Amino acid sequence: MVTKTTKLIEEAFKAQGWNYKIDEHPNGKSSAIVTGFDLKSGRSIQILLISGELERGEDLALRVFQYADIPTERETEALRACNEANGKYRFVKFVYHDNGSVVIEMDMPSETKDVGNVAVELLYRLLDIADDAYPIFEKAKG
User: Which CATH architecture has domain 4-141?
Assistant: First the structure.
């Protein structure tokens, strides 16, 4: 089932003329808009705007699951890079996973007025931060 939040964000994406697809979770309780953007640095990233489970109020989670890959043998450097980025940027969180992937996380409560336009604004912020922060993670790769 496509959630109300996903539908509102879809309307905003259509108004922007952006390409996307909608993905419904198999359990039927959540859905996501999947989109991709090219950054100023020339890199491309995939962004998921996940509308949470209906009984939890449909909060929105923006995720970039494969923002950067840093070998697990450089975990200390990866964690330092996440700490540096988390200290420098507001609104987002950088997380290093055991598989070597750095993930960008951003959240928004669905009670926000004008969910679609706020999601677009958050997406623009995420893109700017993702572009600006990447050298920190490149350095961590060694």
Answer: 2-Layer Sandwich (3.30)
From CA 77, how far away is CA 39, in angstroms rounded? 24
Alpha-carbon span 73 to 59, nearest angstrom: 35
Q: Please state the pTM of the whole predicted model.
A: 0.90
Phi-psi sector, 22: left (phi>0), alpha (psi -120 to 50), beta: beta
Closest CA to 104 of 54, 56, 49, 52: 49
The string of DSSP letters for 32-77 reads EEEEEEE-TTS-EEEEEEEE--GGGT--EEEEEEEEEE--GGGHHH
Residue 113 in this model has a pLDDT that exceeds 90: no
pLDDT tens figures, 44-63: 999 999 997 655 566 889 99
d(CA 43, CA 45): 7
Domain spans, the chain: 4-141
| 3-state SS assignment for residue 118 | helix
Cβ(22)–Cβ(32) under 8 Å?
Answer: yes
Instruction: Quickly tell me which residue has 């003329």 as its tokens.
Output: 17
